[in-house]
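B., you asked whether I could sanity-check this one before it goes into the benchmark set. Here's the sequence:
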Amino acid sequence: MQGDTHYSQIIDSEEARRAQAAADEAPSLPASQIDQTRFYITQHWDRYSPKDHLTWKTLYERRIQTLRQQASNVFLSGFDAFNLPKDHVPRLSEVNKVLQGKTGWQSRAVPGYLPPKAFFACLAKREFPTTITIRPLEKLDYLPEPDIFHDVYGHVPLHADPVFADFLQTYGKAALQCDDPTHVKRLGRLFWFTVEFGLVKEDGRLKIYGSGLMSSIGESQYSLESDVPERRPFDLEQVCETDFKIDHYQPIYYVLESFEQLRDAMMDYAEKVLNEPVATGR
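And here's what the prediction gave me:
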């Protein structure tokens, strides 16, 4: 949790401290003993300050200017279904009403960073660990960790799509059960180059769908228009063998032909990792 009093007031509670402790314990437990519900906390919406709401409003207005030209149609369909508020931080309860009817996914408030195994346990249950703090107004352009703008504005719209929803749950199941360090590393790369920084072909041109691109005005334009990065056709094996760095714009992006391609490739890989068929659904 952040030490800044203003920044942490949203999660300054015994409930949040217990949840974070439970999440931090998860890596030491067998997958079957992890109870992901212990990581979740209440979103005390009344604790957001006027400055927090102004931060959301400012980020929303800046990003929406180019979002409809850059973003995947699938992402935009989910984005429009949520009708996210323009002038204040969203309530997860309202987001979840839409998700429940679309795919059964839910956004669950968490106190901060979850270790990978805890994160995967949530995905395996169709629950997305959602950071409920929001970046300070003075740090609009860069934050090293996720916040509610990154998670809700950048991630959640794709969770309303049945195909992407199945992919993400399958990913969570495979990553949760996997103990092989090689596969764990490969799965981390897959998440990075798809969920965070993926591109897709739609309407005869490139569009963004990765949340890292959705929440970055600068890199979204760079990923689509710059001559510097390499854009490779999506191939799961190649993706899983590609290293990445987190401290600069990406030199490589992988381009999907469709989200069905991603789902089907993940299903095949999960069966190889787990040595059994993988069931998805609510």
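One thing to flag: The chain has 13 helices and six strands. Otherwise nothing jumped out at me.
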